[in-house]
Amino acid sequence: MPKKGIIAVISGFSGAGKGTLVNELVKRYGYAVSISATTRPPRAGETEGKEYFFKTKEEFLQMIKEEKFIEYAKYVNNYYGTPKDYVFSQINSGQDVLLEIEMQGALQVKKNFPDVSLIFITPPSTAELKKRLINRGTEAADIIDKRISRAVEECSYMDKYDYIIVNDDLDKCIIQMHGLLQSLHFTKNNQKQLIESICNNFSSFLL
Amino acid sequence: MPKKGIIAVISGFSGAGKGTLVNELVKRYGYAVSISATTRPPRAGETEGKEYFFKTKEEFLQMIKEEKFIEYAKYVNNYYGTPKDYVFSQINSGQDVLLEIEMQGALQVKKNFPDVSLIFITPPSTAELKKRLINRGTEAADIIDKRISRAVEECSYMDKYDYIIVNDDLDKCIIQMHGLLQSLHFTKNNQKQLIESICNNFSSFLL
Q1: CB contact under 8 A, B188 and A164
Q2: What secondary structure does DSSP assign to B10-40, as a single string?
Q3: Cα(A180)–Cα(A86) distance, rounded to whole angstroms?
């Protein structure tokens, strides 16, 4: 049996660079990323099973009923959720899996699966965050202000996370994240198999 | 103000290779190691402030009274303890500090200083442990059996630790330990300064 992979939830302020970070971790180190299910209709260019698993509302509600989600939520009339099947089959085959989800979903995951580690990505300062949001050039000033107000609220979530990482320099942050993700294999929660096998081993030795 | 260093407690089964591991971490990566105080008389070749800080029983009891220890214990008529001063001055200057202490001391540290991380080192199996103890060539068979019996008892401590690392291949283990120790900088407990500064920063931005 291969050592099980770890599950890490990645969240953070809008503009913290989570998306780029996760893409690079996948590209450079081969992490798997969970794919969400949603009842929102596909946009142009989106493919089933790539960006999302597209579900009807009935299908989604049925999946909720059958406890097939790690977490789910409703936003503006659409459901979004992380299906268990994909994530669990990945970790059982020894693959580490990243879940990029927002904060309320993250806390839902932690509550249901306490062994999962929560990682929070933050820019080094608000000034830097505002700069990044403006540089994207795609957002109006009032949207930017709204996001910063939201970030202030989101601050209260930071200390619910297990780890906080500053994304100042992208390359440095990718290397730090990879180091952190690898070290998650050594947490007590991810070493249960080992603890059990060592302790059984010791005990049988005494017989 | 430099970012504070982290404190990591390292324990594990006798014969797990803790001593070599800690020495190599110090030599290769510059970690500081805390020096214990003891009332045991110096042995030939031991120097004050290198192997131990040597104290009279009166001095030691006075230090206990003044809460100058992170943890202390009495073994066979002698006291042993980890003085606060050295460890705290090191982490305040940004230096990471390793404490190699036994399990009851480790739990004492965790109780008094919950931000400290506990790391448990284990050989991959009992068979391997017994082989290592025999290969040392310095121990009689009954001592080896006694150590293994003790290891069985110590098993119950494993899941009190935050991280468990197998020392199978020394070089691999040193690299894994260094990765783990560096990632401890990102734990919520070691990021309190950052969380506070980010959240104050965001809030002041809104004024």
Answers
A1: yes
A2: EEE-TTS-HHHHHHHHHHHH--EE--EEESS
A3: 23
Beta strands B78-83 and A69-75: pairing type?
A: unpaired
Q: What is the pLDDT of residues A61-74, one digit of tens each?
A: 999 999 999 999 99
Provide the ipTM.
0.88
| pLDDT tens string A26-54 | 999 999 999 999 999 999 999 998 889 99
* B-chain residue closest to A167, CA distance: B186
Judge: B205–A148 Cβ closer than 8 Å, yes or no: yes
Cβ contact A183–B188 (<8 Å): no
Spatial separation of the C-alpha atoms in residues A139 and B60, rounded to whole Å: 64
Distance CA A181, CA A38 (A): 27
Which helix (H) or strand (E) is B112 found in, with range?
helix B103-112
Measured between beta carbons, the chain B residues lying within 8 angstroms of A203 are: 152, 155
How far is it, in rounded angstroms, from Cα A123 to Cα B138? 55
Q: Tokens standing for B192?
A: 């309190």
CB contact under 8 A, B188 and A155: no
CB B11 within 8 Å of CB B120: yes
Please name which of B110, B43, B49, B46 lies closest in space to residue B85, comparing C-alpha atoms: B49
Please give the structure tokens belonging to residue A45.
Answer: 């260019």
The residue type found at A6 is I
- Domains of chain B and CATH, by start: 1-31+97-207 (3.40.50.300), 34-95 (3.30.63.10)
DSSP A48: B
How many Cβ atoms sit within 10 Å of the Cβ of residue B120? 28
Nearest CA-CA distance, residue A179 and chain B, Å: 6
Q: Could you tell me if A200 lies within 8 Å of chain B, comparing CB atoms?
A: no
Six token digits for residue B11: 């324990």
Tokens encoding B89 = 């001055």
